């Protein structure tokens, strides 16, 4: 029986190859899930920014327009639902578009809870010198560790404060700094008492 093939070794080789391929497939699935979650988180931040920018546009007297939102929804709807399993959030809703581990701020703002504009202006009012958007973002992230503090949202809140006259913007070279109007206004003597 010298002509028989070593069947167990061929089977073992195929089994090892299938196990390796299966492991690589699962790893790739995880990578894609992580990328989808990152993109969904980025989309949620952009949608929050859009809301703030729309409000700023209304304050400045412009008519809000959002034709891109309808296009974005149709693109999202074109993704087959079969690509997502029960562990992966859906793309349709803004709240459900967040990563499972980052849902600490997925709930809507409760009545009476301060807005990002309120938080930025309160922080700036307590400062003795102008702060950059990055410094404000970092301080708010430290003050609110239970929430995700997107830098774009803080920048938009600061610009909304400028538009509403609550925050003053100044440039030093290429850098932009913000100060609370209350903190920026120097106390002037009362002209009636002089």
UniProtKB/TrEMBL annotation:
The keyword Coiled coil applies. Keywords: Coiled coil. Residues 22-49 form a coiled coil. Residues 60-117 are annotated as: Disordered. This is Regulatory protein.
């Amino acid at each position: 029986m010298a002509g028989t093939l070593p069947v167990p070794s061929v089977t073992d080789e195929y089994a090892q190859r299938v196990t390796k391929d299966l492991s690589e497939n699962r790893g790739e699935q995880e990578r894609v899930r992580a990328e989808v979650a990152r993109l969904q988180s980025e989309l949620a931040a952009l949608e929050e920014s859009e809301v703030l920018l729309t409000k700023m546009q209304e304050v400045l007297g412009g008519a809000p327009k959002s034709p891109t939102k309808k296009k974005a929804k149709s693109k999202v709807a074109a993704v087959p639902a079969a690509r997502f399993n029960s562990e992966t959030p859906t793309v349709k809703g803004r709240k459900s578009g967040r990563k499972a581990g980052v849902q600490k701020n997925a709930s809507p703002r409760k009545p009476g809870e301060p807005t990002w504009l309120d938080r930025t202006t309160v922080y700036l009012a307590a400062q003795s010198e102008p702060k950059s958007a990055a410094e404000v973002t970092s301080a708010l992230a430290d003050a609110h560790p239970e929430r995700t503090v997107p830098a774009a949202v803080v920048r938009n809140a600061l610009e909304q404060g400028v538009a509403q006259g609550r925050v003053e913007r100044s440039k030093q070279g290429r850098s932009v700094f913000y100060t609370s109007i209350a903190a920026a206004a120097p106390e002037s003597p009362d002209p009636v008492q002089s």
